[in-house]
Amino acid sequence: MSDQATLNRTDLKALDHWIDGATVASAGGAYLETVNPMTGQPHLRVASGTAEDVAKAVAAAERARDGWRRFNAAERGRLMLGLAHAIRANRDRLAEMERADSGKPLAGALAEIEGSAQYFEFYGSLVYLPTGDVLDVAPDQHVFTKREPYGVIGVITPWNLPLNQAARAIAPALVAGNVVVAKPSEITSQTTIEMARLASEVGFPKGVINIVLGTGLDVGEAIVRNESVRKVAFTGSVGVGRAIGRIAAERIIPLTLELGGKSANIIFEDADLDLAAAEAVKGFTLNAGQVCSAGTRILVQRSVYEAFTEKMRAEVAKIKPGENLGPIITPAQFQRVQSYFKVAEEDGARVLAGGKVATVSGQEGGFYIEPTVYADVNNAMRIAQEEIFGPVGVAIPFDTEEDAIRIANDSDYGLIGTLWSRDISRALRVADRIEAGQIFVNVWNTMSVQTPFGGHKNSGYGREKGIEAIHHYSHVKTVTVKI
Ligand code: NAD
C-alpha cells in the first residue's frame, strides 16, 4: 500500500467488490492504492470497503444460502470442477495478476494458480462422500447423524499466496454446503476477485461467493462481527488472529486460524547432506521466504555443522534476486526484514551469506533482499524466535537427538517440522515428538490438497485441506426417531 489512500487517481486500473454475482463499487467510494513490489511504482486502485459493503455481501450470501444447500451433490460437484477447469484455462492471466500484485517469479505464480484449481477439483470430487452414520442405539430407535453447513462463512486471507489461500478455505466451505463472504489482502486482491467472476461464468448462483475488498480493520473486522457470519477461516499473522479470536469468543463462533511459523529443519549427521542443503535453502527462499511454512531454523548436528553450512552457502549462491527470488511485498515489510540485519549483528550471529539489500538491474525501485544465512546462532536469539518473513535462514548447531527435539520445540510456533536422517527409527522417534502440525522426513514441504494442514501453539488451530477440512466447515446433527 502507498502511504496515502488515494481517492481520485484515475490513471490506474480500479478493482471493485464482487457481491451477489456482480461488480459493485464501494459504498464510501474510496480506494486504496497498491504498489508493484518489483518497481516500487503505483500499480492498482483497490476498493476500500466498509461495514456497509460487508452487510450487503452477507445479505446476498444469506439469500443464496438455502438454494445452494438444496443443490444436489452432483450439481455442486459439477460447478466446483467447472471452476477448477476455468482457473486452469485462465492460468496465464491469473499468474500475471498474481505476479503484478506480489512480484513473485512467474514459475511460483503458475504453481500457485495450479494449486488453487486443485482445491476446487479435489473438493468437487468429494461431494459424494457420505455425510453421516446410522447408530445402533436401541431396537425401538432409529438414530442417525448428518453433517450440516454453518451458513455464511467469513474467509480472510493474506498476501503471500493469495488465490491459493482463498481457494483452500472457500472450496471445502462450499462443498460442505456453505456460502462465503471473503476478504483477500488489500495488497493482492486481483486473483480472488477474478476467481469469483469465473465462478459466476461457470454457473455458480449469485451470492454463493462474495468478495469484499479493503483493509482488515474496515472489512475484515466487520466480517467477523457480522451476526449472520457463523464461522470464520482466517489465515494471517498471530496478532490479527488474536484480535479475531477475541471477537469470535464474544460471539461464540468457531474459527480456523492458520497463523505464522518459525519451523525447524533438523539435519542429522547421517543425512544426505547435499540434498538436505539444497532443500534447506529452498525452505527459506521459496516465495522470498514469505511463506508460513518456511523452514527458517536450520538445526545442524555439530559434527557436520561446518561442512553443511558451506554446502548451504554454495546453494544460496544459486539464488538470484530478480530471477528465481522475488521481492518483499511492501515498503513496510522491506524495512522490517532489513531491521533484522541489525538485530542479528547485535545478537552476535555470523553472516554466512547475504545480509544486505539486493539491487536488480532494471528494477532499481524493487524491494529485493539477498538470500541470507546466519551461522553460529543460538535458539534464544530474536532471529531464531521471530518470524522474519523474508529470505533469511539461521543455522543452529546441536549435539544429540534430544537437543534437536528440545530446540525444535523451543518456539512459540508449531507449523512444520522437517528432519533429514538415513536412520528411519530415529526419524520416526523425532517426528513423534516435534510439536507441529506436519512433519517431513528427507523431503521438504511436498504438500498436496489431500494432506491436512494446520498448526500447534501460536501457529493456530483447526485444519485446512484434505477430507479433514470438510469437518471444520460443517457441524454434526444427531436425529433420534422412535420406531
Ligand atoms: P495479516 O494478519 O496482517 O493480514 C491477513 C489478513 O487479515 C489480511 O486480509 C488483512 O487485511 C486482514 N486483517 C488485518 N487486520 C485485521 C483485523 N483487525 N480484523 C480482521 N482482519 C484483519 O497478515 P499478512 O501480513 O497479510 O500475512 C502474513 C502472515 O500470515 C504471516 O504471519 C504468515 O505466517 C501468515 N500466514 C499463515 C499461513 C498459514 O496457513 N498458516 C499462510 C500464509 C501466511
TrEMBL record:
Domain Aldehyde dehydrogenase: 27-479
One Gene Ontology term of the molecular function aspect: oxidoreductase activity, acting on the aldehyde or oxo group of donors, NAD or NADP as acceptor
InterPro entries noted in UniProt: Ald_DH/histidinol_DH (IPR016161), Ald_DH_C (IPR016163), Ald_DH_CS_GLU (IPR029510), Ald_DH_N (IPR016162), Aldehyde_DH_dom (IPR015590)
Residues of the active site: E258
Record keywords, A-Z: Oxidoreductase
Assigned protein family: Belongs to the aldehyde dehydrogenase family.
Name the record gives this protein: Aldehyde dehydrogenase (NAD+)
Protein species of origin: Jannaschia seohaensis
